[in-house]
Amino acid sequence: MPPRRVITGRSQEPRRRYAEELRLLRNERGLTLKKLSEVVGWDPSLFGKLESGATMGSPEVAQALDHHYGTPGLLLALWELAVGDPMQFKEQYRRYMILESEAACLWHYAVSRPPGLLQTVTYAREALASGGAIGSELDQQVEARVGRQLLLEGSDPPPFRVILSEAVLLTTLRGPGAWREQLQFLAESAERPNVTLHVLPFSAGQHGLTNTDVMFLRLLDGRTVAYTENDVRGELMEESSRVERIQRIYDAVRDLALSPADSLKFILRMLEEVPCEPST
């Protein structure tokens, strides 16, 4: 007979499981939220939101709680699972998110915004807020988007090639400081060994992806899938003939783009042009 599964009664959904573990550990030690705040730092309202699942907090909070509770790596691991959980995303994106987490290689063409994998927290918040997200929903979406960036980290991250339309670099954030931070993040990302970044200047003219964002994922089984998105809809393509067709278009666009070295210079020039914020 197969071994019986141990039933703990705890949730198997990552975000809820993280919240449950935080609440359980605090209660086991007889701590109030206020006392935990005094010992670890941060406002007690944050810990209340963490334990209710209203927010995920940061990896620094998870690490601090691991240290306090003597659970090295446990809470941080649960945090990483929760922020990367595809069930946080809307239904139309969920299969794509699952495939993205398993991809051996990624390619992206971005029309008007940097891909989520290359957005700062401030950029992600402003972009998602412009789509109507507010309050705890906005917090959750920002955490989920930024949490996906763990995909590009670690000892053996997948290669990621991205082509940014020049429009991406001209659609600034409201504050020059936040925009400078985003451009700096792009420049730093371009120098990472697993990231290849191209800028497609307006001088390249019209092309097959002028109004379409597209991401390609090379999966471990050798298949390539594509996710396309425009102003009104997104579509996951898994049929090989359709994927090959749009990949040929992507390759033609890449041939029009600046080299990685010239693209980095392009971003650095734009960074120099960002006005300084007035001193207070």
TrEMBL record:
SMART domains listed in its UniProt record: HTH_XRE
Q: SUPFAM superfamilies this protein is in?
A: lambda repressor-like DNA-binding domains
The protein depicted here goes by the name: Helix-turn-helix transcriptional regulator
Q: Where is the HTH cro/C1-type domain?
A: 22-75
List the source organism. Streptomyces hintoniae
Entry coiled-coil feature ranges: none
> Per UniProt, what is one Pfam family of this protein?
HTH_31
